[in-house]
Amino acid sequence: MSTDAPRLRPPRHRVDRRAVAWWTTRTLAVTVVLTAVPVVPAVVWEPVRLWFLVAAAAIGGLGLLITVVMPQWRYRVHRWEVTDTAVYTASGWFWQEWRVAPMSRIQTVDTARGPLQRAFGLSSVTVTTASAAGPIEITGLDHEAATEVADQLTDITQATPGDAT
Amino acid sequence: MTSPNEHTPAEPVEPAEAPANPGHEDTPWERLHPLTVWAGAAATGLVLGVGAVVGTVVLLVTGASLWALVPVPATVAFVALFAWIDLLRLRATRYRVTAERMELRSGIISKSYKSIPRERVRSVDVNAQIHLRLFGLCMVTVGTGEKIGSGADQIQLMFISAGQGERLRRDLLNRGPAPAEARDEMPEGTDGTAPDEVELARLSPAWFAYAPATGATVGVGLGAIATLLGINAQTQGSVWRWTSDWLGLPSSQEMASYAASRLLLVLPLSLLGLLVSGVVVLTAVAVETWWNYRLTREADGTVRLRRGLLTSVSLSVEGRRLNGVSFYEPFVLRSVGGACVRAVATGLSGADEKKTSAKSRLSPHMPTGRARSLAAALMREEGSPLDTPLARHPRSALRRRRTRAVFVSLLCAAVAAALMWAHTLAQRAWWEIVHEVEAEIVPVPMAAQTVESAPVWVWGVLAVLFAVLAFWYAQGSYRALGHGVHPRYLVVRRGMAGRDTVALERSAVIGWRISRSPFQRRLGLADVAATTAAGEGMYAAADVGLSQGLAWADEAVPGLLAPFLVHGDGEGAEPGEARP
Questions:
Q1: What residues does B97 pair with on adjacent strands?
Q2: What ipTM was assigned to the predicted interfaces of this complex?
Q3: Structural domain tally of chain A?
Q4: B402: closest CA of chain A, how far (Å)
Q5: What integer pLDDT is reported at residue B179 of this predicted model?
Q6: Which of A43, A45, B192, B543 could make an S-S bridge to B397, C-beta 3.0–4.6 Å?
Q7: What are the extents of the domains in chain B?
């Protein structure tokens, strides 16, 4: 292909560094719970103890691997950018996704923070358009920064006419 | 019959407690039609009544004469209760259409108030099931394409008179105040073409020949026969015994052994039987669904679909909400030269993808050429967007599909090996059990016998057959891929089992989603999807070369993606960039 083949450039901003800690904690919690599930019958039920312990070890091992690899990988992928005309995000790790939505088509802008995110001082910004493809989410922003982004988005979208469909 | 008016004593219409509507409080609130209660009671009464009468007769015959007094009065009481609740609902429901809004107040216990601006009305669906038609009623569903109140994105009126429904349909989509003459002009849903209507399509009965051309035909036949077998099994086989006595058929054992000795004749015949019953069922369904089919465009651009033999359906979509067309060719239909046309429109979405696509159908199965010209007419374009030349996707997309085919083949080989092993191990006793189970279910048990008498290598042949099929599918699926840009539309095509060519208005694109799996990254591919408010919400050029797809997206919606693109082979190029 010719040299002017277009490529996507990554969005300008990384998410907050603390997001790595948040993703690690979240994955670790899920891993612990999932590993505990086969451990219970292993303790109670003698004859099949070995098999359930093997299952627990497999789940636990895979979970720990993901816990170590995924957050760093995600941190390298997750990025966001808000221009005067559009929102642009990159997310995912194994499966990756880039989203673009023009300001004129944005319906609502929300910030949300779960208890775990709050513990790390983080917030997510959710940008909804009229499409059934789902909203655009910027996760793992510093709380202050998230509020700022949401305000900025709200201001720009309000200044843009149209019924967003 | 008492006058229906007795059931709806004039109640003073209290002023709306909900958001005031300055200047339009004089628009009177309207009610549902009083015959609603009678129609509902008649329908339930008929269904339950037949059951009650049959129940009474059965109880009388079996000698439980005291119990025989129960079914009929119980049914009457139930229907009365049902009618009473319906009456309460009817009294509690009011609607009106003002110059700006459509409002609905309803609810017996918890009151609800829904109000949507008229400019948000995307589609109006006027639907009359058979029992409603007898009473001259219809159900109106107003779609908005967004959530109002709790959950639903539509307002439903159950039921109003057919004339009122037609008036409402015109008013809501015509915008502006209701023209006075329309109120008298259309007393009932007439069938004559209004002078300002353009007819886009009308049913040709020959099209019903395409109706059974689906991959499910044999399956539907199997379903129909399975239902019959189920009834037979429920009655411990008495239905079959009765039928075979009546027809003077030989006993099951004789028939089974006769059939087993002529398997080569019996197998194709039973397949043919399945096919024929599937064809009958599907044709009947198509006739019910598409009888009286007409697709018209009204003077204001609204596209109107009318169809239905027993349940009559009239669906109107505002012209500028029809953002595109999907030209759909499922495999079997495609191979007999047929296709159908579906709408890509805002305000037609159902609860899930399946309902959305069922609601979006704008044509029955019809000849490909006719479907193409219908799609072109719907998009009002000189050169049909469907004729836009489509760009091929990179060869690596084919490689990806072939890899999948390899995995399918390996799986088939493994399963076949396991089955061969099981087949050689299977004992006499094991087959006895299978035969017994089968004899319980099927009057003429043969399937297990066929399997038993088949040589072991059959499994291997089947596995090879499946593998060949998988590679053929991969090839077809690759050749279906394509994307292109028309001056007003973007076009994507994909699918082997169900080939779908979608033309979407470029102005209706409300964003892009580029996604890449690890395999796609390795091969330099991506799914580049346009998101939209219409139809399924997202239409993708699947497995397109990354830069090819980005260039396409940039051309289709200039300016949106451009700020985020870099050109040339500068630093930061991703590994696995699309190669020539």
A1: B102
A2: 0.90
A3: 2
A4: 21
A5: 44
A6: B543
A7: 4-188, 318-391+481-564, 395-478
